[in-house]
Design goal:
Structural class: mainly alpha
Number of helices: 5
Strand order of the largest sheet: 1-4
Shape: globular
Strand content: 5-15%
Distance between the termini: 41 Å
Number of domains: 1
Helix content: 25-40%
Largest sheet: 2 strands, antiparallel
């Protein structure tokens, strides 16, 4: 397995957001869920059944995975051109991700930034892999989430454009 280190410092900015302050992330896109070779690929594949074809999941773990799948699919299939704020906000609310990852992904999820990367280990792509890892780790450490009844829908966490944002907001 070939790993590459990416130091992110406060000088690295996307728009008005500073991403990762003095954090080192190791990643290899060879080991991505998109390539069916993620860090917890076996576990992820075993848990996919928890995500319904439509509507909210019946378990907490299922709704967490539904949120991850919404972000991940939109990133790799649409370049983050859809409003996926509900998914990223839900994961932050459930303490799956930290504020730094949220801030980086949110600007794309809200459509305030256009992803123009080439899926080559950039900060957003690395964050997407980390979001899946953190979600699977949470489920493995909290097996009760597999049977805990879910009463929430990730779409209830969606941020919509305000009147002041309508001109720049893509709907």
């Amino acid at each position: 397995m070939e790993l590459e280190s990416y130091p992110f410092v406060s000088l690295l900015k996307f728009g008005n957001f500073v991403i990762f302050k003095n954090i080192y992330i190791e990643a290899s896109m060879k080991n991505s869920y998109w390539n069916n070779n993620g860090k917890y690929q076996r576990e992820y594949n075993e848990l996919k059944f928890l995500v319904p074809r439509m509507g909210k999941a019946t378990t907490v773990a299922g709704e967490l995975l539904r949120s991850v799948n919404r972000l991940y699919y939109d990133f790799y299939n649409n370049g983050m051109c859809n409003n996926t704020t509900g998914a990223i906000n839900f994961l932050l609310e459930k303490r799956i991700i930290d504020q730094e990852i949220h801030n980086l992904v949110y600007q794309y999820a809200k459509e305030d930034a256009v992803y123009d990367g080439f899926y080559k280990n950039d900060p957003l792509q690395i964050s997407m892999e980390e979001i899946v890892n953190k979600t699977i780790e949470f489920i493995l450490k909290n097996p009760s989430s597999l049977s805990e009844v879910n009463s929430e829908d990730l779409f209830d966490y969606t941020d919509f454009c305000t009147e002041d944002e309508l001109e720049s907001c893509v709907l």
